[in-house]
Structure to design on (262 residues):
């Protein structure tokens, strides 16, 4: 096999290769954080889901007392923070795949991330209000 | 993007496979969970308010329509979690053969079906 020495091996500049950020301009961080948050959520989802089923028909005081337990409040806050971050990353991929107009894509992304942030803050703030009022 | 470029693959003339259907269902369930989480946020805010407002929201959740939404949310969580684990196995290079993706697929569908039955039992029969 003869090698054409006059042609460049790659069109990517050496600096671009060294940075390793590729066409996404952010490397593999989105992909990696999506997986990390997925793995982190597994125990949290299982714990909170099973607890919710066990207190499904609980009254106000029982539900607030459950959330007021420090271990439960921390599990819920972690689940909500990690979960809404994971949701935000997932929705970003869907939006980037299906919205081809650049302006509309950027606006939809910004709007979606704002909504996910608002959801996270509203739910975590509610947990804190309950835990600090009724907590042990 | 006003140019009429050829699109591929032509989904309309493709025979649906288990793998492609499960792939789009993963996406759909993820979007459904992100949107449906508004009910979880609403319930937590109501729990913080307490009193009559909580009673009102709890009444909606216990209504037949509320319970149907909860069942849908529960099934979406089960599927997205099980299929997410399937994806994590692939990321470690496990189960990437044609046999493997189908075997994993059947396990995920079986798990989701069992949780759907459990969800119906908890929400409608208990």
């Amino acid at each position: 096999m003869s090698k054409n020495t006059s042609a460049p091996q790659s069109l990517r500049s050496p600096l671009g290769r060294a940075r390793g950020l590729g066409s996404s301009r952010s490397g593999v961080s989105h992909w990696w954080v999506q997986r990390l948050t997925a793995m982190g959520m597994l125990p949290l989802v299982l714990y909170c889901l099973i607890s919710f089923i066990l207190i499904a028909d609980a009254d106000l005081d029982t539900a607030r007392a459950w959330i007021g337990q420090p271990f439960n409040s921390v599990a819920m806050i972690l689940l909500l923070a990690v979960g809404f971050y994971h949701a935000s990353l997932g929705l970003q991929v869907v939006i980037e795949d299906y919205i081809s107009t650049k302006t509309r894509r950027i606006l939809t992304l910004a709007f979606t991330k704002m909504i996910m942030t608002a959801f996270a803050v509203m739910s975590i703030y509610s947990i804190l209000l309950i835990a600090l009022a009724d907590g042990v | 993007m006003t140019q009429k470029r050829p699109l591929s693959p032509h989904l309309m003339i493709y025979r649906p496979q288990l793998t492609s259907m499960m792939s789009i269902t993963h996406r759909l369930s993820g979007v459904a969970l992100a949107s449906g989480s508004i009910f979880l946020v609403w319930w937590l805010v109501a729990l913080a308010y307490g009193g009559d407002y909580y009673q009102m929201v709890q009444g909606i959740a216990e209504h037949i329509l509320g319970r149907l939404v909860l069942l849908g949310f529960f099934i979406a969580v089960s599927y997205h979690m099980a299929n997410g684990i399937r994806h994590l196995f692939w990321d470690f290079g496990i189960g990437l053969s044609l046999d493997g993706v189908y075997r994993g697929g059947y396990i995920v569908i079986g798990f989701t079906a069992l949780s759907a039955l459990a969800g119906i039992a908890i929400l409608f029969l208990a």
